[in-house]
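Why run this: before we spend reagent on co-expression, it is cheaper to look at a predicted model of the complex and decide which construct boundaries make sense. The entries below are exactly what would go into the expression plan.
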Amino acid sequence: MSSEDAAAAAMRADGVAGLRRRYARRYVMGRVALYAMAVMAALVCALPFLWSLISAFKQNQDLYNPDNDPFVFNKPATPDHVRYLFADTGFPTFVGNTLLVGTAVVAVTLLLALPAAYSLARLDRPWGTPMGIGIFLVYLVPPSLLFLSLTRVVVALGLADSLWSMIVIYPTFTVPVSVWLLIGFLKAVPKDVEEQAMVDGHSRLGAFVRIVLPLVFPGIVAVVVFAFTLTASEFVYALAFVSAAPGMVVSTGVPTQLVRGDVFYWQSLQAAAVFTAVPIAFAFNLFLDRFVTGFTMGAVKT
Amino acid sequence: MSAAESSGRARKVRLSDREGFLAWAMLLPSVVYIVALVGVPFLLAIAFAFSDVTTGDPSYHFVGLRNFRAIFHDGVFWQALGNTLLFTAASMALIVVFGKILANILVADFQGKWFVRFLVLLPWTTPVALSSISWLWFLDSIYSPVDWTLRRLGLLHGNVIWLGHSGTAMLSVVFVQAWRLTPLAAVIVMAGLVAIPRDLDEAARVDGAGYWRRMFEVTIPLTLPVIAVAALFGAIMTFTDMTVPYVLTRGGPTHATDVLASWAYFRGIEGGDVGQGAAIALFLFPILLAAAIAVLRAVRRLGLR
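The model came back. Tokens follow.
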């Protein structure tokens, strides 16, 4: 080996090491940037809730003093306002109503959307694709265009001020999006599974009910959570259909009943927001990955 | 086993095996439901727009274009239309940019990802009326923590009164709307990001493309259809939504944040003039139709990939 070769090899080794160092540095910087971004995103999204949580336990003299630091307790914390929310307001009723309406709407949604999604995903008809897109587009028709006439429909059906008004109307926006998601999950099930089931003596319908449905169960749960979230957030219909407090849900009851004229029960309002937000976000997060895959599959394969 | 029984069973099996029958039977309930409670009310809304129906007097009289003439002569309608377009365009721009950034963060691997995702989802999973109420406090004219922070930083004396001036009121409404819909946009964009074949990104990396180059020349072009879907979802939900303006400002100060949907609500439900309310709400439709066609084309492109 000549000395020139050795020098070249050393230089090359040096270059490789340098490159590695550069990559390592770039990697570390990338990680640091990622963590910084993640923390910032979490703060921007969740800071208002942190504020709400702190405010909910503040005494009046603490909250209603513009010079007090809004991020800390300047006076001892008090559970009074949270107790007031649960004991002396309609909040427990609103929560009960929301759960009741949500459960019923989810049930109706699944009963309608599951067969429809299966029909569009598997029983290949020439009208399958346009019909699928048509149902999806219904989701884009907004409540603000329909609430005037739907209010008349609800009154004509004698459902005004009753929970049934919401149970009957809410599936108009949960069914389309659920069909869309379920198509994605159903298409992920290999066709052989059904064919095998039919060879084993199940009818086409039987194969769907007994074999396919259990396989897409995780997807169904994701749809349930999503539909429930939509139902709990709905505001315009609930406001237009129900004007009596006992029939109100959280999204309308809290803003209308915990505000008396100009008097806002601020601490109780903040507590209501946090206590409603956290469980739903928790449930949604559990099924986020499922939801994401469902959205892609529905989109890519329809 | 008798012949009749076995032939009966055979017919039953055949009915639940016939795909053409099944396809219709399984789809029909949804279609009937949607036609009855979306299609019919939609036509009814159009009919209301040409009538003098009020909440006090529900009998139907055709009045031609009277409602439209009335709303065209009303300055508030044009202001609401302009506000709606501004509200939608501004929040959509924010939603798309931040949704994309958020999606990129959420698909990466890092410690505590579960908790970050949970926090990030909060604005979207909270019923919008409740989060708007919380914001009402944060933007309060006297006790606003935002003002307190600004004062502490020496950037402000006194109070901004966010919801009391037309400019800051619109800014607040746009910001809250973007804040609440960004997580949904992020989730939709995530769906597009996870669908990108990994080897494509790897290949670009091997070819020496840096992070930003990969971002702008590989990731963004490939996820463009999904980003378009997210943008249109955001646009439609913003365009037709009245909750944030309704709760935060009630359309004020002096209609500065009134949008078509809230104006239709004030006129049609609170004012009782169903005909005019319907005529106002109907103006949402041509723009929605255009948006729907755009969604359709984005979805098509998504399907071809």
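Residues 70-304 of chain B form a domain with the MetI-like fold fold (CATH 1.10.3720.10). The mean pLDDT of chain B is 79. Bring this page to Monday's planning discussion.
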